[in-house]
Design a protein that fits this description.
single chain; mainly alpha; transmembrane
């Protein structure tokens, strides 16, 4: 029988120390900052951009609404002024009417001259014989015109038709009152029995 040699236990002396020193020691890196630390400035920047965008949109929307209100107010004012301009234009046309001007001149005592004289300024000469004006030369402005016979006849027929209609309405009212009085009398006699 052979006896096998037992494994040798490692020596506890200087030999072991050399073995462990042969392995190289490396420096452990510093612990990394938390994962939120580098993201924090980015999150703050994005949040500020979002808030700034929302505030910008609100300011823009408000200014657009104010502009729309101002535009509506100015449009209404323009419409009012256009209507006033048309009214004043109509009044001006009425005032420019030759009949109105002639009537106003007559009210002021102006008359048409019989003999008009013309003054030529460049030659400093008077053409024609000036004469004072009087009312006899001024024609009537609005001569009265009688109504045609057909118009007079139509007005007469319309008046007769209106009178007949009024009389028929009065007769119908009287008959209704008489009928109501008869009904009252019958009901009072029926109640008395």
């Amino acid at each position: 029988m052979s006896i096998a040699a037992a494994p040798q236990a490692p020596a506890r002396g200087p030999e072991r120390a050399t073995e462990t020193t042969q392995t190289r020691l490396t420096a452990v890196p510093a612990p990394l900052p938390s994962p939120m630390a580098p993201r924090l400035p980015f999150v703050v920047l994005v949040s500020m951009l979002l808030v700034g965008g929302v505030v910008g949109l609100l300011v823009f929307n408000t200014s657009m609404q104010q502009s729309a209100f101002q535009e509506a107010r100015l449009q209404e004012q323009a419409t009012t002024l256009a209507a006033r301009e048309q009214a004043l234009d109509g009044e001006l046309k009425k005032m420019e009417n030759p009949h109105k001007i002639a009537a106003k001149a007559k009210e002021l005592g102006m008359v048409v001259p019989q003999n008009a004289a013309m003054l030529r300024v460049p030659e400093a000469k008077v053409e024609g014989e000036p004469a004072p004006a009087d009312r006899s030369a001024t024609p009537p402005l609005h001569p009265k015109v009688g109504k045609p016979y057909s118009v007079l006849l139509a007005e007469k027929k319309a008046a007769e038709a209106a009178a007949a209609k009024k009389k028929a309405a009065e007769d119908a009212k009287k008959k209704a009152e008489e009928k109501a009085a008869d009904e009252e009398q019958r009901t009072s006699t029926d109640e008395a029995r």
